[in-house]
Amino acid sequence: MPRDSKSPREGDFIAIQSYKHDGSLHRIWRDTMVLKTSENSLIGCNNHTLVTEDDGRHWVTREPAIVYFHKKYWFNVVAMIRDDGIAYYCNLASPYVLDKEALKYIDYDLDVKVFPDGKRKLLDVDEYLDFSAKWHYGDEIDRILKRNVRIIVDWINNEQGPFSKEFIAIWYERYLELSRQNNEERK
């Protein structure tokens, strides 16, 4: 596949920008290391990454996390690598776009959390209902998001894609390799 000269390469750092349906900026992750790009997806890693909220507050991610974005699915996945196992945070969101500035998507409030023990929880239903009414998401977006929740649950049940421990192990190891290379190049 010919590489778009504007596409980030493995080892590059990009920003991630989350927006709300009304176009307002919601959250920014400053430096996500790109591990792989393809025609339809991007895999990266956050590790002690600076995050800026829409109200200006800053915080830093606590643990390494493999992030998975897709141009056809209405969700993205954050796999947080913790001492007690992998916890997943799945944002129901528009497919991403990537430009010179950042990887960008619209956050649609609903989230699926998967705990290291496999328990799952649908989060922020009240927030989704409030913003859906406020910003008029409409029936089509509602149907798309519900369909994508079913896809996420199916992927979780079948340990598919980012929900596979092997997937996370492979991409975390690649992150460690690229980090070592970056550190050696700076010496």
List the helices and strands and how they pair.
Blueprint: E1 13-19, E2 25-37, E3 41-46, E4 50-53, E5 58-60, E6 65-70, E7 75-82, E8 85-93, E9 97-98, E10 103-114, E11 120-123, H1 125-135, H2 138-157, H3 165-186
Parallel strand pairs: 1-10
Antiparallel strand pairs: 1-2, 2-3, 2-4, 3-6, 4-5, 6-7, 7-8, 8-10, 9-10, 10-11
Written description of the protein model:
The model has no long low-confidence stretch (mean pLDDT 95). The protein has a single domain (12-180), classed as Beta Barrel (FomD barrel-like fold), CATH 2.40.380. The protein is globular. It is an alpha+beta fold and 187 residues long. The protein has a seven-stranded mixed β-barrel with strand order 1-2-3-6-7-8-10. It contains three helices and eleven strands.
Which features does this protein show?
seven-stranded mixed β-barrel; alpha+beta; FomD barrel-like fold; 187 residues; globular
Q: What percentage of amino acids are in beta strands?
A: 35-45%
What structural class is derived from the secondary structure elements?
A: alpha+beta
Distance between the termini: 34 Å
Alpha carbon gyration radius: 16 Å
The tally of beta strands, per DSSP, is: 11
Strand order of the largest sheet: 1-2-3-6-7-8-10
Taking the sheet with the most strands, its summary is: 7 strands, mixed, barrel
Keywords: Aminoacyl-tRNA synthetase, Hydrolase, Ligase, Magnesium, Metal-binding
Organism: Lentilactobacillus kosonis
Protein name: Cysteinyl-tRNA synthetase related protein
InterPro entries: DUF402, FomD-like_sf, Ntdp-like, SA1684
